[in-house]
Amino acid sequence: MTNHSIESLTHWTAQILESCQVPPEDALQAAQLMVRSELRGYATHGMTRLPSYVERLLAKDFNPHARLRQREFPGGVVLDADGAMGQIAGAEAVRLGLQALEQTASVLVAIQSCGHMGALGVYALQAAEAGAMCLVGQRTPPLLAMEGFAGAAIGHNPIAFGCPAAGEPPIVFDIACSVAARGHVLLAAREGRDIPTGWALDPDGRPTTDPKAALAGSLLPMGGHKGIGIAMMVECLAGALAATAESFAPEWQHVPASGAMGRQSAFIWMVKPQAFAPQPMLADYMHQWIDHYRDCGGEHARLPGQRGAEQEQRAQREGIALPESLTRELSALGTRRQLAFFA
């Protein structure tokens, strides 16, 4: 493992994105979110995604010159991301949502035509740090199937939740609807190792531990039909509410080999907690259930987001530790883009 300073890694990442014609301000925004995802432990959705994002930008699957536009109405915003990188669209959706909460108790931002947003937990975290409860989801092309299915039937549709907790780091819960995120399968294929039994199916609908067969086949849903049900919920909120004519285009219905998808849709739903429950009632209730949870679990009781907050604090002091395999991959990317990666 090699440690890198947050500032240096962010600056280099922004430069890489700028080399793909992303405007400097947008490049910095995306770089900050990717690096923060890395330092909070979202290893499959942090810096390892940069090469695939560059690939998508150069292929014009992500629009480096996107012009984001929004349509606002009471309780809602429709954000047309114009094919922007998901990090740029997601950050703008959080900003619009928080702005709307200044006038309303709840707002749903439907995001049209954006790229892969990376770790959805960072957007939920941003909202929670600003005092809002937040639910985030992104629709993906079909990736999930049950054993015996003829093919992938629905997206693995990741979802995240963030909530302020007085005196605590925000609660942040971030999952895909598959047993394991596709990023873990991509990582296993890159490193030449098997995946655990129960993660995926091969193209014939049979269980497999071969990551390459899994990538050609489909992922299994967490909790069986329960995972499929949550994926359907995200499909309704992130897919249907943000649907455009582009949503039906065949080229946006499959997953590229790199795993970074363009022209997808998402939603961010924010709630202003104090509009529903006055202080100190709200804070007292949060403390009550958190204390009871910890009393029952002892050293085993950890709130979602706690580990990420601890890792982020450690990285602020010590820098970000990157695996040697990822360092080599980023170094190769830097060579291709004529922006040497630092040792």
What does this structure look like?
Keywords: Oxidoreductase. It comes from Variovorax humicola. InterPro entries: Mal/L-sulf/L-lact_DH-like_ah (IPR043144), Mal/L-sulf/L-lact_DH-like_NADP (IPR043143), Mal/L-sulfo/L-lacto_DH-like_sf (IPR036111), Malate/L-lactate_DH-like (IPR003767). Belongs to the LDH2/MDH2 oxidoreductase family. The chain contains 11 helices and 12 strands. The longest helix has 17 residues, at 281-297. With 343 residues, it is α+β, with helices and mostly antiparallel strands. The strands form 3 sheets. It has a 7-stranded mixed sheet, sandwiched between helices. A 3-stranded antiparallel sheet has the order 9-8-10. Helix 4 (86-100) links the parallel strand 3 (76-84) and strand 4. It has a single domain, classed as Ribosomal Protein S8, Chain: A, domain 1. Helix 1 (6-18) crosses helix 2 (24-39) and helix 2 crosses helix 4.
Structural class: alpha+beta
Domains (count): 1
> For the largest beta sheet, what order do the strands appear in spatially?
2-3-4-11-5-6-7
Our Rg estimate from Cα atoms comes to 20 Å
DSSP helix fraction:
25-40%
Task: Please name the defining characteristics of this protein.
7-stranded mixed sheet; alpha+beta; 17% strand; 343 residues
Can I get a quick summary?
This protein is about 40% helix and about 15% strand. The protein is an alpha+beta fold and about 350 residues long. InterPro entries: Mal/L-sulf/L-lact_DH-like_ah (IPR043144), Mal/L-sulf/L-lact_DH-like_NADP (IPR043143), Mal/L-sulfo/L-lacto_DH-like_sf (IPR036111), Malate/L-lactate_DH-like (IPR003767).
